[in-house]
Write a structure and sequence with these properties.
This protein is 31% helix and 25% strand. A hairpin with a 5-residue loop joins β10 and β11. It has 387 residues and is of the alpha/beta class. The N and C termini lie far apart (85 Å). The chain has a single domain, classed as Peptidase S8/S53 domain (Rossmann fold).
């Protein structure tokens, strides 16, 4: 190509680009890829591993956690309730791992059903398998007589996980646990309807990366669980609790403040605040999980933390609340009841620690929400609210 022709082509390109409308480059090919990234994501499990052991359990056990949070004074066991756990990829060893976990800690035999609404995954994922073990084992530990429905998404995509949530919704679950999430995105509110159903409470972990809000925890129809560092004595008695530095929290740029948070507008402004409540999450005060699907060449007992621990645990609590009250509820009613319960008697109000941008303080905060539960007191409040 001669130099004169090159110059003419370059001049034509400059003129045509200049003639474009001012927003044309923003709305062209590059914008399409940006838009896609803002309307979907691949989820990750909110799990943190402290250590592993082949010789026996490491981390807090069910008796210690139940004692710390007052479940040892509660007679409800979750009988007649169904807890759905939604996880990507699942675990090929979960049935045997759950049996080993239950036998180790003297728990009732579990009633576990596994469903693959979009078909079985074509591959295993060790991280998600460990997440699955944590979720199923600890939902069973908190509510040992509840039925557990493990719904396995064939991938970590938004569409497959929502298909899993929809399956749980239509197959008898009273509470649905989601120990996973991803960054918020501009189209997230269009998915809120998946979490808004009569008689079902949806729970999600707030995230493990410190300040910032994740989805689906950001949905106003989801009970968002933040994280703490839980200190107990050798008998499991509660000693102290501080905000865990990894606890996700903040205000959502895409979700409006829901009615149950209206009294917190001086803190939250006009947007949804996260988390709502808290639970142990620091891997240094993590819990025992049994998993024989090898993770990083290790299998057996693991000490696990992350806000992933909070979601199935609170799902178990919802099953206990439902059994005690004799009624099921939806997410917003349950959230309203939790916010209306007494700070002084029903919660451990966590007032120290931070997640980076936010500090724990008296009352509600953007690290631990209302606080962690005194379950024996809170269950009475919830039962009275249901009358």
């Amino acid at each position: 190509m001669n130099k004169s022709l090159q110059k003419l082509l370059l001049l034509a390109l400059i003129i045509s680009t200049t003639a474009l409308p001012s927003n044309a480059l923003l709305n062209g090919t590059n914008s399409t890829s940006v838009t896609k990234s803002k309307t979907t994501f691949n989820a990750k499990p909110f799990i943190k591993i402290k250590r592993s052991s082949t010789s026996g359990p490491v981390g807090y056990n069910p008796t210690q956690i139940k004692t710390a949070y007052g479940l040892n004074n509660v007679s409800a066991t979750g009988a007649g309730e169904t807890i759905a756990i939604v996880d990507s990829y699942g675990s090929p060893t979960i049935q045997n791992d759950l049996t080993s976990f239950s036998n180790q800690f003297g728990l009732a035999k579990a009633n576990l059903t596994i469903a693959y609404p979009s078909g079985k995954p074509s591959t295993n994922d060790a991280g998600w398998a460990l997440e699955t073990s944590l979720d199923v084992e600890w939902a069973h530990a908190i509510a040992p007589n509840a039925t557990i429905l493990l719904v396995v998404a064939k991938s970590s995509s938004t569409s497959d996980l929502l298909a899993g949530i929809d399956y749980a919704t239509s197959h008898g679950a009273q509470v649905v646990s989601n120990s996973w999430g991803g960054s918020e995105f501009s189209g997230e509110s269009s998915y809120d309807s998946h979490f808004n159903h009569s008689g079902i409470v949806y729970v999600a972990s707030s995230g493990d990366d410190g300040s910032g809000v994740s989805w689906p925890a950001a949905s106003p129809y989801v009970l968002s669980v933040g994280g703490t560092t839980l200190n107990i004595n050798s008998a499991g008695a509660y000693q102290s609790e501080t905000a865990w530095s990894g606890s996700g929290g903040g205000t959502s740029p895409y979700e409006a403040i829901p009615s149950y948070q209206s009294s917190l507008s001086t803190i939250l402004g006009s947007h949804r605040g996260n988390p709502d409540i808290a639970w142990d999450a620091d891997p240094n005060t993590g819990v025992a999980v049994y998993d024989t699907t090898k993770y990083d060449s290790q299998s057996g007992w693991f000490q696990i933390g992350g806000t992933s621990f909070g979601s199935p645990s609170w799902a178990g609590l919802i099953a206990l609340f439902d059994q005690s009250s004799g009624k099921t509820s939806n997410s917003t009613t349950t959230l309203a009841n939790l916010y209306n319960s007494s700070y002084s008697t029903a919660y451990n109000d966590i007032t120290s620690g931070s997640n980076g941008a936010y500090r724990a303080k008296a009352g509600y905060d953007l690290v631990t929400g209302i606080g962690s539960p005194k379950v024996d007191k809170l269950i009475v409040d919830i039962a009275n609210s249901a009358k």
